[in-house]
Amino acid sequence: MIISHILHHISKFPPIRSILFFFYGKAALTMSKELAHYIMQENRVLDLGCGTGIIGSTLARTLKTSIVGVDVRDAREVDIPFALCDGKHLPFPNRMFDIVLISYVLHHVDEVEILLKEAYRVCRGKVIIYEDTPQNLFHHISCFLHGFSYGSLFNIRKRCKFRARQEWVSLFQKLHLSILRTGDINFFNPIHVTARSLFILSPPQNKTL
Description:
Layout lengths: L1 H9 L3 H22 L8 E5 L5 H10 L2 E6 L10 E3 L12 E7 L8 H10 L1 E10 L4 H17 L11 H10 L3 E7 L11 E7 L7
Helix pairs in contact: 1-5, 2-3
């Protein structure tokens, strides 16, 4: 508790925030280049678990898309259209978005299957997922420390659950989701060293989630 309290207050100092947002911005630019193959201009994109909004804002600027962010709390550092949700139900009508982006969010979610079902309810195209997918003990330790520090910085009292890539693949198959592509993400973060994966999914054919 003491360490969490200290980290939470340290994160308020402008130099620390500048460093954090530098890494967020760098990651967002890398993601925008990767996602240019899947997100078309003027696509309507839902940034599910948008956090600071930096990723959504970068995609809107570089890919000329329409972005809406949603999260369980408003932690935006940039101004993007935004709605609150309860973590289980998304406040949007069916098939409202061309793309749903879930970027390093699912390890924070308790009921992943429910949220994925909601993502597909509001999506008429692809769901794009980025996740930390640890492969060894060192990666698991890094993920644990990352989850602890992230929760402390943003005052989130919840333990993260990180899964290996094959665990995610098995879950997607259980939900009858088609995996169009999966691959490694080669983004070096010296503060959090682990394997990372990208999943491009399409809705189940003739099935109800």
